[in-house]
Write a structure and sequence with these properties.
This is ATP synthase subunit epsilon. By secondary structure, this protein is an alpha+beta fold. The chain is built from 4 helices and 2 strands; from the N terminus they run H-H-H-E-E-H. It folds into 2 domains: 1-40; 42-71, no CATH class.
Length: 72
């Protein structure tokens, strides 16, 4: 049996991001603010092709753009 997130066309990382954001939004104000700070990402990544590094991108911005693109 395929996992529901896979059947919906999501990667496991995207599934985790969506569920974490949902849980944070359900918390009371003081706990929500603290949890959102812990959820901030300051990671960067680059796609490698043919042994050459591509443009370095901010992970949080790339995730936000992908979420907007998929309507989540």
């Amino acid at each position: 049996m395929t996992a529901a997130w896979r059947a919906a066309g999501l990667s496991y990382n995207r599934y985790l991001a969506i569920t974490a954001r949902t849980v944070r939004r359900c918390l009371k104000e003081d706990k929500r603010i603290a949890a959102e700070r812990r959820g901030e990402m300051e990671l960067r990544f680059a796609k490698w092709e043919s042994g050459k590094q591509g443009d370095v991108k901010d992970l949080a911005k790339a995730n936000a753009a992908a979420m907007a693109e998929h309507g989540s």
